[in-house]
Amino acid sequence: MARSDPLKSYHAKRDFTRTAEPKGRLARARAKPVFVVQKHDASRLHYDFRLEIEGVLKSWAVPKGPSCDPAQRRLAVMTEDHPLDYARFEGTIPEGEYGGGTVMVWDIGTYRHLKEISLEKAIRQGRVEFALSGKKLRGGFVLVRTQSLGDPNWLLIKMRDEFAGPSRDPVADAPDSALTGRTLEEIAAGASRKRQKA
Ligand code: MN
Predict the structure, then answer these.
(1) What is the pLDDT of residue 190?
(2) How many other C-beta atoms are found inside a 10 Å radius of the C-beta of residue 2?
(3) How many A from CA of 35 to the centre of ligand 1?
(4) Can you give the pTM of this predicted structure?
(5) What pLDDT does residue 8 have?
(6) Separation between Cα atoms, residue 68 and residue 36, nearest integer Å
(7) Are 158 and 164 within 8 A, CB to CB?
(8) Which residues of the chain have pLDDT under 70?
(9) Is 119 strand, coil or helix?
(10) Of the candidates 153, 141, 154, 143, the residue with the CA atom closest to the CA atom of residue 111
(11) Fewest CB atoms less than 10 Å from the CB: which of 78, 127, 128, 192?
(12) How much distance in Å is there from the Cα of 48 to the middle of ligand 1?
């Protein structure tokens, strides 16, 4: 059965003659899927949480960013699938373009699906359980859809494990890029060098 293009919406929203975001295309599924959390200083600052599933990055906008406290349920609004190349995109989307503003790779790494069912089925059923191996985020997390199929609102919740704790707050304590060490301001200014430790 032919699969409809999961990146159609991503491509339709962007003018690639104006934005430096990668055009990308559907990739093959890989043994070690990546996750990325991009801090996005758009009209409103938010975090884009992305999981590689079936050759694309399934994406959720998390207004407050991920929490390491299992008591905190973070709203995660599903957005359009992004190409895998997007995982390492850091830069500024021009004003007036879709998502205009600065993008930082806030955390990046691999993840492991914790259930035996396929990830596509888990998404369809509205519950995805996974363990992250990032630089800031580690251990189990769950994404749960709050309503029925088709509703964009999910919750991102930390599982109880050795990486959980109400005092751990990487959003506040580790605000800079996991890829280049840069702040949002340095990325916006086009600074190419890793920031010197003071
Ligand atoms: Mn965004």
Answers:
(1) 87
(2) 4
(3) 15
(4) 0.91
(5) 94
(6) 16
(7) yes
(8) 1-3, 192-198
(9) helix
(10) 141
(11) 192
(12) 5
Spacing, Cα 7 to ligand 1 middle (Å): 16
Residue 198: its pLDDT value, please?
Answer: 44
CA of 99 to the centre of ligand 1 (A): 6
pLDDT at 150: 79
Return the number of other C-beta atoms located less than 10 Å from residue 179's C-beta. Answer: 18
- Ligand 1 center to 45 CA (angstroms): 8
Tokens of 170: 């990487």
Residue the block writes with tokens 């995805």: 128
* CA of 14 relative to ligand 1 center, distance in Å: 13
What whole-number distance in Å separates Cα of residue 132 and Cα of residue 141?
Answer: 7
pLDDT recorded at residue 147: 87
- The owner of tokens 């491509």 is 11
Q: Which amino acid is at 134?
A: G
| Ligand 1 mean position, distance from CA 116 (Å) | 30
Determine the length of the chain: 198
Please give the distance, rounded to the nearest whole angstrom, from the Cα atom of residue 77 to the centre of ligand 1.
10
Q: Which two tokens stand for residue 30?
A: 């890989």
State the distance from the centre of ligand 1 to the C-alpha of 81, rounded, in angstroms: 12
Integer Cα distance of 21 and 7 in angstroms: 14
Backbone angles phi, psi at 15, to 5 degrees: -105, 105
How many whole angstroms from 1 Cα to the centroid of ligand 1? Answer: 32
